[in-house]
Amino acid sequence: MLVLYRESDLDKAYRIDCKARAKGNEPWMKREEFRSVYEALLDMHFTKAIAKNYEHKADELAMHIIDIVNDTLEKSLDFTPEDTDG
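Now predict its structure.
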């Protein structure tokens, strides 16, 4: 699935990830390495929302997914699709 996002959303998510990594004493990823993680998270949550027939407007869905991704990044450094509830 092709997922479009704003660079500002990527930057915000990257800062959240860096903050979580600093708290966990984990090494930071480079921003461009993080991009693939961010895109995978967005794709996974959009796919889940479509499968559940999410019935909100597209812009509401996009903001909801971005919030879910940011919450996921704040809670865990381990990205495995099975661990997310969004």
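The mean pLDDT is 81.
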